[in-house]
């Protein structure tokens, strides 16, 4: 495992291009595009103000930089550095900006969700979509980029519009049986749309592409409902995390619940592997100090090492007591992610913020629990294999795979507090983002060697 | 009468004293008193008796007393004490006979009375004890009654309390229910209110939004604009088409078409998947069916023999089915009838199999129950046999060791008393010398062969690698000890040549080590402190070590041209071992690759021993 040098960064804006060739990062008002492998600067663009959001177009040719404070979007081309485009939303303001899947249209949401403006880079045409709903996840494109589903609110009722992205024509428009629609999400195969109600009511609705209601699911009433939703990459399962600390898995045939994963604070089953991060200060042996190892000097001296230990069951995890009188209590399953092969599901229960739970979807049971020393900030699956990267805001990155767990100290002077991370498309490298720096972590795997061998074997 | 009195038991009399005393109060006649006095014949009372007697009848009042007695007796119905008077004037004479009769009768009466009294007294006693017992019982029962009554009261109290509690709880429950209902209604009303408010707010908000929209959008805001250097081509290379009313409709239709195509594709894909799954399942079913048929067909004779009608018919059905199905190969058809047929036949077979398995289970359990003891016995017998065998072996081994020890001791003993034995030995040797020499030459040849073999073996062993060598060394050290015992007498006692050869053969088979040889010889020198023995050996065996010097032994062995191997092997093994340690170190370094390499690149990482520990997990 190798680490690149540390580069400057602001507002955690660092993204790999969809084709994996480039890496865009922002420093204040500057946008830096580097080669993802060599990390040499390919382009440097200067925006008018501090950049608050960046996004690559799907074909990796353009990058949009949103300057929300100014209501501006600036678009840069990678092929033609001199090309520029500036979209000004004027007094309407700007709260969100995103690419359409074709990479030639930009969808800007104005302040107060008055409308969504669709700007075309090909023609002068501008389209408006009225009544977008201000919610958690109101705009979603199908994986193939053909359709856009949009949550709307008109006359105190929720609607969903399905638009064709090629010409922005309305394909379907239907009302959803929700009190307050909180989010919509396409299944990866683009044929089923999941829509869920706000946390006040547990309700998830499944619509076909042609607007038919396929099924509704409600696990319980009179309690806080859905907190997170995730489709499996195979479109076979829909995982619904809720405030009761459970994940319910729905199947794609009957849309009924297959199983229910609870997140108990104590783990008794000896089949479950509990990895416990343990801090250990480096052994201060006088003899060793007399012979300081030359390589160790490069490493951080102050930070303590940490490693995983396999805890023996029963294990009781640290739980937070939620404040019942506050809004958005820290309970329930707040984060869900399926592995790319749909075999594993990683979850985080907000009442046990230090733990990541990994479930085996093939056997529908809990496989492993990783208990960290501090609260888990974010986790993301390797896009190529069942490998999970976790960060906790400390100076370490944690990787889990079915084979085991590893904790890696990020090198560098001072503390590099990993607040977020994102994988490269190939799964070979990982960008680690701290408050004002980022670095790349290259994972040299035996797999590369293995494939090389395999190729050679194929040739011979 | 005095005799009788003495017969009375003092204990009894003392007991009866009280009773008699209190009976005496009722009757105050002197006779009765007397009788009492007779009864209570305790010594201290005797004086009193005398005084009493003296008081009743004295010399002066004989007449009076007689008359008194007469009167008394007549009133009790006894004949008069006096003779029939002939005349009134004449003094009535005392009839002695009558007196005696009366006395006798009185005595008899007395005895009877005493008996009766005794009976009565014992009865009385019995009754009294009964009474006591009954009283005790009564008291106890009364107590019990009291306690149970108290208990009952307590229970009643508790019951009452519980009922009270229950009532309270019911009340509470009711209250809670009410509360819940109330809360639910409150929630509902709040929800409706909230929704209402929300709607109102939202309407207001919408109005504001609308107004804002109008204000912002319709102002012809010049700022809302896009500056583009030049328009880029579409990603698909097509040109944007203009929208007109006509094209819009066609667009719409096209979009619809596409959408349905996508949906259709999806459904087709899913159907295909389901079909595949079905096919798989059918295959499994078919296989199961076949296996069942094959499993059940050898058993079909048995049930038929048993004239088990149902299974027989079913099996025949199965056969038919199997025939049909195999003939028609209708598996691909998902027709209703075929499916039913299939499921039915499978079900039938399954039932048969189940019953069969159950039967088998029963049999097995029966057999188990019956034959458990037998098996146990058999196993025990086996065990015993085994142990016997082992004991025999141990015995043999012990005997061997004993003989070895004896031989050793003999050797030592002969070594100790030198002169005579040396003489004896010498003559003995002269006779045997020739034979020994012959044997020795033979032995040498054998040894050479062995050396050759060994060499080849060592070469192989060297090739075998490092771990093996370490192991061999261990083994060699072990063998050293064994050879120590064996070789000592195989050289010195020609009679044991056979034994030695047997052992050497085994050792060769066991372990083709080379360096075991020179080491055996080193201890071999130890018993050679006896001059006789060494002299003999030097004669017979030039290569044999006369001293315990190891170098010398080596040089001796060199004559047999085995030195190259013998010398090198232990030395070679040494560097190898060092190399192994080195690799070990390397390995230990590599076992923490991340920490080391991490240091290289300025990071350190630690792997949890998850691989190992996970494997341990079930």
UniProtKB/TrEMBL annotation, chain A:
Gene Ontology terms: cellular component: centrosome; ciliary basal body; MWP complex
Pfam families, per the entry: WD40
Coiled coil: none
InterPro entries per UniProt: Centrosome-WD_assoc, WD40/YVTN_repeat-like_dom_sf, WD40_repeat_dom_sf, WD40_rpt
UniProt-listed SUPFAM superfamilies: WD40 repeat-like
Any Gene Ontology biological process: mitotic spindle assembly
Protein name as annotated: WD repeat-containing protein WRAP73 isoform X4
Organism from which the protein derives: Physeter macrocephalus
From TrEMBL, chain B:
Gene Ontology biological-process annotations: cell adhesion; intraciliary transport involved in cilium assembly
Coarse class of the protein's main subcellular location: other
Coiled-coil regions listed in the entry: 131-218, 380-407
InterPro entries assigned to the protein according to its UniProt record, in alphabetical order: Adhesion_Centrosome_assoc, Afadin/alpha-actinin-bd
UniProt KW keywords: Cell adhesion, Cell junction, Coiled coil, Cytoplasm, Cytoskeleton
Annotated region described as Disordered, given as residue ranges: 296-321, 502-533, 562-581
Cellular localisation: Cell junction, Adherens junction; Cytoplasm, Cytoskeleton, Microtubule organizing center, Centrosome, Centriolar satellite
Family membership noted in the UniProt record: Belongs to the ADIP family.
Designated name of the protein: Afadin- and alpha-actinin-binding protein isoform X1
Source organism (scientific name): Physeter macrocephalus (Sperm whale)
Gene: SSX2IP
